[in-house]
Amino acid sequence: MISIIRVAQGKNSTLSHLYIGGLFACYLLEDSIREEKIPGATCIPEGEYRLRLNPWAGMNARYSVRYPKVHRGMVEITGIPDFSLVFIHIGNYHTDTRGCPLTGAYWRLVDGDYQVLHSAAAYKFVYPQLVEAIERGNDRVVVGGR
Description:
Layout: E1 2-9, E2 13-20, E3 23-31, E4 47-54, H1 58-66, E5 74-78, E6 86-87, E7 102-104, E8 106-110, E9 113-117, H2 119-135, E10 140-144
Parallel strand pairs: 1-10
Antiparallel strand pairs: 1-2, 2-3, 3-7, 4-5, 4-10, 5-6, 8-9
Protein name: DUF5675 domain-containing protein
Domain DUF5675: 4-130
């Protein structure tokens, strides 16, 4: 099972944990939780969604160059009402998310907002695990609170 558990709220950010197979895999940084979506500034709503590899979206070209030995497509979270092209990817600040979860090896709180750091290292750690899970048919992610 793959799950995203929200653990803390900043002014414009949400700190989450990513679990794969019941084990903590990395921190995630998301936008704020909002009742009404603000494009590019709202995290995905709680629910159960599907994961897939997306080899055609714009980010794919950059990640193919950056991670040529392992990249097989962006890990996309699909089936989210009113959201599209939501990828698990690298970044450090809530301004990098645009609705996507960002990977991090650790976190810090600066001026009331969470940041994740060593994002690329966390991504390199979780990406192969997510690809393997998707290929085995474990392509569901549950997003929720504590």
